[in-house]
Design goal:
With about 425 residues, this protein is α/β, with parallel strands linked by helices. The chain has helices at about 5-10, 100-110, 115-125, 130-145, 190-195, 200-205, 215-225, 235-255, 260-265, 270-275, 280-295, 295-305, 315-330, 335-345, 350-355, 360-380, 385-395, 405-410, and strands spanning about 15-25, 25-35, 40, 50, 50-65, 70-80, 85-90, 155-160, 165-175, 180-185, 210, 230-235. Strands 1, 2, 5, 6 and 7 form a 5-stranded mixed sheet that branches. Strands 10-9-8-11-12 form a 5-stranded mixed sheet, with helices on both faces. It has a two-stranded antiparallel sheet with strand order 3-4. Helix 4 (about 130-145) packs across helix 17 and helix 8 (about 235-255) runs antiparallel to helix 12. The longest helix has 21 residues, at about 235-255. The chain is elongated, with a radius of gyration of 29 Å. Bound molecules: zinc ion.
Length: about 425
């Protein structure tokens, strides 16, 4: 089988030469040995020594050679180190305890970000478990070696996952649009733990604003752990409250008003929750007939649409004026649901108007939420929280934006930057 010199060149593991190549169960089994001086590096401290205590064969799966999957076999030594005692020698091409080479790990890791783990496993000729461990090691390595950001604005938000009332809290960097932490539950203790344990003191010191929903436990946690940061209620959540009020009006007007009206209002919920500018053609006509049937619903819809303009004001008095005007327009409308919303907004006006001082990127907040939902949908049955967090970090950070980024990941250099 070819000259061994050529095989060594093709394998391309620096410092190692090919000894034999056999076919074992339709895989190429390549036995390799170190070339040159036989002094081994201690995996504990990095010192070199020639004192070998024992040795054993170990295998690593590697990149395929044309149509053949490859397993590399090497006799790994256990050495006697002056500083650490008995240790295994360091292997340059793989992580300690890993069953795949580092370059295969990179390939599997990158593939798993755009296809299911089972597909990546088949593509690279490894078992599902091996592929999953490789992916995890890949993501953990990326996360450990990338730049630690110090965002001015962070977000605390709840996400809903799985059946029943299972909530999670997500901590995110809303300046760069990246997830930073994830924990089960939405209690004050959870939020406190996220801020104090997942952020370093330096990172906490850099925060000037926290973007969140009007969820009491979060507000308490932020007040206690980040006394110098302001709370900003994000647009996304405020408008969600407005849409909920609008839906209450729909229910009140159609479902408690007899069979004829009920038939009219059935199946219109999603249509009604959409913004007017995104509704087109026949759907728009459908909305118009709905409004012709009920003026109060129309009024509530217009009020919700107007609320959007709140974020065009640049000063606190402007915001306050607008909100006052909006609440005045509610008078004589007899829409108790919208009245309640008005009171609610007025109570929280301080946090809503805080965006005048902190230019939080609300579009980023919303796009993080969309990405999180997409990842959760794909990772339906994932039990491993740490892995889920890594996947969320990767999906929101977009570390591969160009062909050059991809090359850098596949070339398995020890350091990656985020861009
Ligand atoms: Zn040592």
């Amino acid at each position: 089988m070819g000259s061994r010199r050529d095989c060594t060149w093709i394998l391309g593991l620096s410092g190692f030469r090919v000894v034999t190549i056999d076919e074992v169960e339709s895989r190429l089994m390549i036995r390799i040995e170190r070339r040159g001086l036989h002094r081994y590096v201690c995996s504990g401290c990095g010192r070199r020594t020639g004192r070998v205590r024992s040795s054993g064969n170990r295998t690593w799966d590697d990149l395929p050679w044309a149509a053949h999957h490859v397993t590399v076999m090497y006799t790994q030594r256990r050495i006697v180190c002056r500083a650490c005692g008995i240790r295994t020698e360091r292997i340059e091409f793989a992580d300690p305890k890993a069953r795949v080479t580092r370059r295969l790990r990179q390939q599997i890791g990158v593939d798993c970000q755009s296809m299911p783990t089972s597909h990546a496993a088949v593509r690279h000729g490894v078992s599902w478990g091996k592929a999953r461990r490789a992916e995890r090691a890949f993501l953990a390595n990326w996360d450990r070696t990338r730049l630690k950001r110090q965002p001015r604005h962070i977000g605390l938000d709840e996400i809903h996952r799985g059946k029943g009332q299972r909530f999670w809290t997500v901590l995110s960097d809303v300046v760069h649009g990246e997830v930073m932490g994830l924990r089960q539950d939405r209690t004050e203790a959870t939020a406190t733990a996220l801020v104090t344990q997942d952020l370093s003191a330096r990172q906490r010191g850099a925060i000037t604003a926290v973007c969140t929903d009007m969820h009491r436990p979060y507000l308490n946690a932020v007040g206690a752990t980040l006394p110098r940061a302001d709370i900003v209620f994000d647009k996304f959540h405020v408008l969600q409250h407005a849409s909920a009020a609008l839906d209450d009006v729909r229910r009140q007007e159609f479902f408690r008003a007899g069979a004829v009206m009920r038939a009219h209002g059935r199946g219109k919920r999603w249509l009604l929750l959409r913004r007017w500018k995104t509704v087109r053609g026949s759907k728009r006509r459908e909305l118009q007939t709905l409004f012709a049937a009920n003026r109060r619903l129309f009024k509530a819809y217009v009020l919700r649409e107007q609320l959007d303009r709140l974020w065009t004001y640049k000063t606190r008095p402007g915001v306050l004026n607008f909100l006052n005007g909006w609440i005045n327009a509610l008078r004589w409308q007899r829409l108790p649901e919208m009245d309640r919303l008005g009171e609610f907004l007025f109570r929280h006006v301080e946090g809503i108007a805080a965006y005048c001082d902190h230019h939080v990127r609300f579009g980023v907040v919303e796009s993080i939420n969309t990405t999180i939902k997409a990842v959760l949908r794909r990772a339906r049955g994932m039990r491993d929280d740490q892995m889920l967090l890594l996947k969320l970090k990767w999906a929101t950070a977009h570390p591969i934006r160009s062909a050059r980024d991809l090359t850098r990941f596949l070339s398995a250099q020890p350091l990656y930057s985020n861009r």
